[in-house]
Amino acid sequence: MAGDQRKFQVAMTHADRFSQEGKWTEAMRAYRFALAEFPNSEAAIMGFGRVALAMDQIEIARRGFSQVLKLNPTNLNALGHMADIQERSGQLDAAAETYLRVGNVHASKEDFDAAIDSWTRATKLSSGQTNAHLKIADALARQGKVRQAAREYLQLAAMYQRRGDNAQATKHIEAAQMLLPDDPGIAAAFESLETGSPIQPQKIGEAPPEPVEPTALDDELDDLFDDDDLFGIEHIEAANQPTGGLVDGARQDALAELANILFEDSDNPHAMVIMQALNLQSNDNVPEAINLYQQAIQSGATQGAMYFNLGFLYRERGQLNEAAEMLERSATDPKYKISSLFSLGLIYQSTGKFDVAAKYFIEALKTLDLQTVSGQRSYALAQTYENLAESYSGQVDADKLNKFAETLQRFFANSDWQQRVYEARQRMNKVGDEKDTMSLAEFLETPETEVVITTLALTGEFMKNNLFATASEECLRAIQKAPSFLPLHSRLAEIMLKQDRTDQAITKYLYIANVYQMRYQPEQSVNMYQKILKLAPMDVTVRSKLIDMYTSLGNAQQALRQYLVLADSYYQLAQVERALEKYNEALRMANNSPDAENLKVDILSRMADIYNQRFDWANAAASYQELHKLDPKNELFLRRLTELYFRQNRLSDATSSLDKLIGIYQRQNPLQVLELLKELSSFYPDNLNLRQRLAIAYAQNNRKSEAIAEYDALGEMQLEKGLRDEAVQTIQAIINLGPDDVEGYRRLLGQIGGGAL
Fold first, then answer.
1. Spatial contact of 539 and 527, defined as CB atoms under 8 Å apart
2. Residue 15, Cβ density class (10 Å: 0-12 exposed, 13-18 middle, ≥19 buried)
3. In whole angstroms, how far apart are CA 243 and each of 250, 256, 314, 489, 632?
4. Contact 420/411 with Cβ under 8 angstroms?
5. Nearest residue to 667 (alpha-carbon basis) of 695, 641, 633
6. Which one, 154, 220, 589, 676, has least CB within 10 Å?
């Protein structure tokens, strides 16, 4: 009977000893004995896989390590062997994905050097591993290796550039810029992206560039422009030094850029017209200035500074359509993008187009906020803003939008707004992990921001010191003041868990997930459901909701994985019919998966196991028939199918599949044929076909006495059934083997055959 711990330990001891001695066949047999007692023993399956690998039975080893990873997805030894097998088999993309998983496991243990090594190997095996490059960059940044991290970010930017995705390329150059804001390699990357030439990550060297000493020519030029105001525009520059907030500061920057156009781009054919327009603008002759700016545009001028300045002039004159057109153009210039988007939001708010205004406000905040983060936080924030934009689509509450706009205007009206953004980000990052990164929009939208941030920080400290009751009271007070701020509710759930109030924590997480769903933030709902399932993995209701969320997000792979877990849960709850129902749903979904074949094999194998345990031989056989079609060379599937045919007395099908199996074993290991036939004959001793094949197998393996004994038994059975012709052939086969009493067999043959030899 399976489950005997003593037999298991004895088998494992022998298996380990045989493995150390290199006796692979004996070791494999011992591991099989161990697995017969405990089929899900991780150690036994690992040992079996290693032995199969040593015997060069690659496919068997692969299946063994796959089973280990089902039991323990973080088993580094199994992952390493699996990656090695995939690499040796030429499955480089699959090997890269496995090395990516290896790195993730190391990273979870904060062994970042080992993680980086594994991720680097993934990038060498598969050129498109953007995720691996991103993880390397983030890990290097966390280790303080900023120059290496910046090069990795530029490597990512180069990959996206080759794909034609300049938006992603820009994002990763900006991530590098946050690490090394003044490095010439960053400027070169931006220039390469703009001109279409390849980005070169190696331009970020191992050490910072040496400072450039001023030359004599530089001194002469400084003297020249210090002495004289050659073009009479000092009053424009002096009057327009940045002193205001976001929009005013951008306008002053635009005027200064236009004023410097003659110095920086003396060959610009529009320079003189722009200078004349600036002069008219400084003298409050706005209509004529606008006309000249428009002439410059019609002649081909494309400066973002001019578009922004002109948009501002139109807005002041109440020409909002013209202002919006110019600001749309200036928004394509990174220097004026945020201020242009914010100004567009104000224009559409003033005309009552609140949904459009919301779109521009959110895009402005998103652009700004993404400049303050990198890595996982960047992706989490991008998703948050997409969901926020979705929540503002359609009918927008005017009061809500007006309050939001008013908050934004107050925040960005101060000259130190950039410092305030930086400080806000620092505070937000301290109270949330990377997946729960708080957005600047939430920070500004929440009326009680100070209370919220302070509470999250305080409760975090209280929890570190095991002051859970105090943390709970503080959190509840804050929720009374900001009841709609979900991170506070999430913190309260964490406190409940620390107090062993698991059921209440789960209820709270469910509430949070439902609210996130109503707010069109499905990724956050998924995060909550995952937290619940870590606490209650058998909760089939929550698992079903998680499947629905993944399906709505178009993440079929994750939905499919959860289907399998759900089916397993039903099975463990003894709801076998529901388990089979979910497996069938997963099977249908697998048809649309890029890894359809492997997924179907996995699902059908689970279903076949259930049918076998229920003694439902017909459905078990149907499952193995499908498995055999998917993998005709898999001897395990064919063996199970053969056994099931015998159990159903489908002798013709059984014989046909048995002969196929014998053919496979004959090529791999002829002794397997003998073991198979002995086993089957012991179960079905009256089956003449089996007994005949067993006799032949004995003879082929030079086991003469056993072959003769088997033929003797076969001949008697044939005579009892009246099969005289078959009995004659059997006795002739014995004579051909040269038995000791050959004359006796010849006489018997004569008696049966009427005297004819």
1. no
2. buried
3. 10, 13, 22, 41, 76
4. yes
5. 633
6. 220
Q: CA-to-CA distance for 38 and 41, rounded, in angstroms?
A: 6
* pLDDT value, residue 341: 93
Give 53's contacts (C-beta < 8 A, 6+ positions apart): 61, 81, 85
Cβ neighbours of 18 (radius 10 Å):
20
Phi and psi torsions of 634, nearest 5°: -80, 105
Q: Hey, how many other C-beta atoms are within 10 angstroms of the C-beta on 493?
A: 25
Residue given tokens 């210090």 in the structure block: 226
The torsion angles phi and psi of 206, rounded to 5 degrees, stand at -70, -25
Torsion angle, alpha carbons of 426, 428, 430, 435, to 10: -120
Nearest C-alpha neighbor of 570 from the set 539, 601, 605: 539
CA atoms within 13 A on the CB side of 637: 21
The CA distances from residue 304 to 154, 367, 369, 440, in Å, are: 26, 17, 22, 26
Alpha carbon of residue 618 to chain centroid: 39
Token pair 């009271």 is found at 473
DSSP 613: H
What are the E-state strand segments in 146-291? none
User: What distance in Å separates the CA atoms of residue 253 and residue 336, rounded to the nearest whole number?
Assistant: 9
**CA 116 vs CA 67, 74, 142, 645: distances in Å:** 26, 17, 12, 51
Residue in this structure with the two tokens 């149907």, named with its chain if needed:
622
pLDDT of residue 344: 93
Q: How wide is the angle at C-alpha 25 spanned by C-alphas 19 and 29, nearest 5°? A: 90
To the question of pTM greater than 0.70 for the whole model, the response is: no
Give residue 215's pLDDT: 44
Question: What distance in Å separates the CA atoms of residue 698 and residue 700, rounded to the nearest whole number?
Answer: 6
Dist CA 36 CA 292 (whole Å): 89
Do residues 559 and 551 touch, judged by C-beta distance below 8 A? Answer: yes
With CA atoms as reference, report the closest residue to 158 among 140, 119, 185.
185
- The answer to whether the CB of 428 falls within 8 A of the CB of 453 is yes
pLDDT of amino acid 236: 39
- Average pLDDT over all residues of the chain: 82
- The SS3 call for residue 629 is helix
What is the SS3 assignment for 509-534? HHHHHHHHHHCCCHHHHHHHHHHHHH
What residue has token string 């079903």? 544
Query: In degrees to the nearest 10, what's the CA dihedral of 514, 517, 521, 525?
Result: 50
Residues in the chain predicted with pLDDT less than 70, given as ranges, are 1-2, 108, 127, 206-244, 262-267, 391-395, 430-436, 445-450, 594, 753-757
Nearest to 337 by CA among 356, 317, 360, 364: 364
Q: Which domains are delineated in the chain?
A: 5-203 (1.25.40.10)
In DSSP notation, 543-609 reads HHHHHHHHHHTT-HHHHHHHHHHHHHHHHHTT-HHHHHHHHHHHHHHHTTSTTHHHHHHHHHHHHHH
